[in-house]
Specification:
Number of strands: 16
Bound molecules: zinc ion
Order of helices and strands: HHHHHHHHHHHHEEEEHEEEEEEEEEEEE
Number of helices: 13
Largest sheet: 8 strands, mixed
Structural class: alpha+beta
Helix content: 25-40%
Shape: globular
């Protein structure tokens, strides 16, 4: 049941009409009782009218409807800013929003798992709930994917019942954007995430006509200055809410073993694919990050050309994080190859739920602390597997398991498992950017 946003306005008016109906009923009752005696009818009329005005003042039903309206109507942003506070008014409600499952349309658990992780991404959710994406659509002819994604997110967060919904309209749009998702084959959740974010970004890119960016030489600049210029150049072409949230900048340094010259390159990243370190003992997420940022020797056929020697030289290459994204997506490379899954590593990788400190991976020792809020899990083998999601509700802070149409509470101690595949971390306010 996918609702159109206009219906929320109607819900609001219907509540108003309920009050009117009660008033009308009061008048009819009043005239009936008038036959018998004036005094009891006056008492009843008084009771009914106080009921009506009481309802208009603060009855739960009425307030809930206006909240829903505030969440996703087409009101100007300023009005919505005010009602945003009411969006989180029921932290202890049993009927907390966002706890709606997604029906499996046939091997679509990979999609459902990622959709629930994104639905619990606080800023992206609010972007959809407030319809802010509409102002970013830039009069684009094709914005169907973003519209369906926003509609789905709105339904997950404003649905009156917790009954599972069908993501079929959304699926139609994602497979138009990325035909590889046509049909009902099991797919890789991380690949799906990349395609989805890319598709959403393209539709809400604030840059409608990408300018041709001339090749500039920044080599005379300091690394920090070069990084800033490269980032601004990226934003000249790619600038959206999706970029604001998910994109970071990676620094790769290449050092010549002959002359010691170090050249640096700065590239945007949407997620980091981390190799799982092979160790007989416990493997931690930090181990995987250390392996990812470990100095790599490029020799033989891989020898790059040193800019100073003007010849191919043996070099060392190293990654560090130049710019930390608000939302850090970490993909554990459990599959030897994403498309043709030949083997799966079921290694248990321990990861912190709170305070993942990434300072040691920063280019300039800046402070970056992240908290986990969602995990896409893969159980089973490369041949037959199933995806689920563990997400922390951004309104209540409680963790839930999303298994297609089923949503159930869980303890945060159960979040870590050897099924964890894609981790979603959000930057804390204590991080210095
Ligand atoms: Zn050199």
């Amino acid at each position: 049941m996918l609702r159109h946003t206009g219906e929320f306005d109607r819900t609001f008016w219907q509540s108003g009409q309920n009050v009117l109906q009660v008033k009308t009923a009061g008048v009819i009752l009043l005239s009936l009782f008038n036959y018998y005696t004036v005094i009891p009818s006056l008492i009843i009329a008084l009771l009914l009218f106080s009921c009506c005005f009481g309802a208009a003042d603060g009855a739960c039903l009425f307030r809930r409807s206006s909240e829903q309206q505030g969440l996703s109507s087409n009101l100007p942003t300023c009005c919505l800013e005010k009602s945003e506070q009411t969006a989180h008014i029921h932290p202890n409600s049993k009927n907390a929003q966002g706890l709606v499952g997604l029906r499996n349309l046939g091997n679509t658990c990979f999609m459902n798992s990622i959709l629930q992780c994104l639905s619990n991404t606080h800023d992206l959710r609010d972007y959809c709930l407030r319809n802010t994406h509409r102002t970013d659509l830039n009069c684009r002819a094709n914005a169907a994917l973003m519209e369906e994604f926003a509609k789905l997110t709105q339904t997950l967060w404003t649905s009156a019942s917790n009954e599972a919904i069908s993501p079929s309209d959304f699926k139609t749009q994602i497979q138009k954007y990325a035909p590889r998702f046509v049909g009902y084959n099991q797919q890789d959740a991380q690949e799906f995430l990349r395609f989805l974010l890319d598709g959403l970004h393209n539709e809400v890119n604030r840059v409608s006509i990408r300018p041709r960016v001339p090749v500039e030489d920044f080599d005379h600049l300091s690394d920090d200055e070069k990084a800033k210029r490269m980032w601004n150049k990226y934003l000249e072409r790619e600038d959206s809410k999706v970029v604001d949230l998910f994109v970071g900048q990676l620094k790769s340094s290449l050092t010549c073993s002959e002359c010691g010259f170090c050249s640096t390159v700065f590239d945007p990243f949407w997620d980091l694919s981390l190799p799982i370190s092979k160790s007989s003992g416990d493997v931690s997420l930090i181990d995987c990050l250390r392996l990812f940022t470990k100095e790599d020797v490029l020799d033989g056929n891989e020898k790059p050309t040193c800019q100073r020697c003007k010849a191919r030289r043996k070099c060392t290459k190293k990654f560090s994080i130049q710019k930390f994204p608000k939302v850090l997506v970490l993909h554990l490379k459990r599959f030897s190859e994403a498309r043709i899954k030949t083997a799966k590593l079921c290694t248990f990788v321990s990861f912190p739920i709170k305070e993942l400190d990434l300072r040691e991976f920063a280019s300039d020792n800046m402070n970056a602390i992240y908290n986990l809020y969602a995990v896409s899990n893969h159980t089973g083998t490369t041949l037959g597997g199933h995806y689920t999601a563990y997400c922390r509700n951004p309104s209540t802070g409680e963790w839930y398991t999303y298994n297609d149409s089923r949503v159930s509470p869980m303890s945060s101690s159960q979040v870590r498992s050897s099924d964890a595949y894609v981790l979603f971390y959000e930057l804390t306010n204590s991080s210095r950017m």
